[in-house]
Amino acid sequence: MARAGRKGLAALLAALLLLCLAGCRGKNHVQSLSELLRLDVSGGTVAAYQDSHGGFHGDGAAYWAITFPDDRVRKTIGESSAWQPLPMTAAVNHLACSLLDGQPPCLPEVERGWYFFYDRHGQSRAPWDAAAAMGRHSYNFTAAVYDADTDTLYCLVLDT
């Protein structure tokens, strides 16, 4: 009887280990970006990607440039209430570029397209309002711009 109990316990532990390993497989960065932007970007080609997140608090910046072969994403963005037509507000521009002193991964200037901003900070009461995020000592936001002339998406995820 003790032997049967050990076999059952071993089988249970093996099953739990398999579940943990399956659950620990990380999402790729394109899946993560799609979730952050509430937009399927899987049909694009990642032209640039860098991520400095890590360390003790997980602070850092992640930057993507994704090109698309056609205008399907552009049409989806144009119909989304989460995306606003350019130009960016001064607050979004400050947070997405000036805050970084123009250093990469600063979002590029785009003349025709849309922008996205979402404040992920725990104290945010208006996550779509970049002006409400100004003046904090730490920032957690996602900002993106879509260039309608080149069908290229640029995204910045900043956590300080």
Fold blueprint:
Blueprint: H1 2-24, H2 29-37, E1 45-51, E2 60-67, H3 72-78, E3 83-85, H4 90-96, E4 113-119, E5 140-147, E6 152-159
Antiparallel strand pairs: 1-2, 2-6, 3-4, 4-5, 5-6
Q: Main traits of this protein?
A:
six-stranded antiparallel β-sheet; single chain; 4 helices; 160 residues; alpha+beta; 6 strands; globular; 29% helix
Written description of the protein model:
- By secondary structure, the protein is α+β, with helices and mostly antiparallel strands.
- 29% of the residues lie in helices and 26% in strands.
- The chain contains four helices and six strands; from the N terminus they run ααββαβαβββ.
- The protein has a six-stranded antiparallel β-sheet, with helices on both faces.
- The relative contact order is 0.17.
- Mean pLDDT is 76; it is low at 8-27.
Low-confidence stretches: 8-27
**How many angstroms does the end-to-end distance come to?**
56 Å
SSE-based structural type: alpha+beta
Mean pLDDT: 76
Q: How is the biggest beta sheet arranged?
A: 6 strands, antiparallel
Proportion of beta-strand residues: 25-35%
- Looking at the chains present, what oligomeric state does this protein adopt? single chain
What strand order characterises the main sheet?
Answer: 1-2-6-5-4-3
- Tally the helices: 4
Helix residue percentage? 25-40%
Estimate the global geometry from the Cα principal axes: globular
User: What is the gyration radius calculated from CA atoms?
Assistant: 20 Å
Order of helices and strands: HHEEHEHEEE
Strands, count: 6
